[in-house]
Predict the 3D structure of the following.
Amino acid sequence: MKLTSTTWVTVDGVMQGLGGPDEDRSGGFERGGWVMPYYDEEAAAHLNRVYQGADAFLFGRRTYEIFAGYWGAMADPDTNPIAAALNSRPKYVASTVLTDPGWSETTVLSGDPAGAVAELKARPGGELQVHGSGALLRRLLAERLVDEVTLLVCPVVLGQGRRLFPDDGPDTALDPVGARTTPKGVEIRVYRPAGRPRYTTAAPAPVG
């Protein structure tokens, strides 16, 4: 399977608490709910297509619990394309503390996540999708297991919150695959990881 990731981020790279003020207040975060002012029909249509294209989903524990509490608790999930996909397809959650997930079709990956994900990728199928799950995504990028990265960048700077890429993370080169901007200013950027970046010394621009 192809491993892809889709992550909402701010211009300063924050990914925490996008869904609402009370979604995730860990670490004293007080600026949740920053996505909805920019969530337009084009962004919604894009996400509907993404989720419907998944063969299976992979989460870190924190994101899994948020998704299970929202998408997994919908009374009639078949009326929503995202909920329908999430509730009907296999889900994997990397966790050493979660033992009894309540969401149907969930498998807990309690061992080494990189090894478990490598085994999942070796199976036949289309897309294994990671949504949110920053700590897990950083680990998978470091292990060179991610095939495609999509960032949905909202035109806002929060100034606090967990960032997707911290100051001391691994370095990764990204090849641009595509980009477009929705009417409300969300930049949908698609990249393919391309190993480590090249580092060179700046040189004067040629004259003439």
In short: Strands lie at 2-10, 54-60, 91-94, 106-109, 127-131, 148-154, 174-181, 187-193. The chain has one domain: 2-193. The longest strand covers residues 2-10.
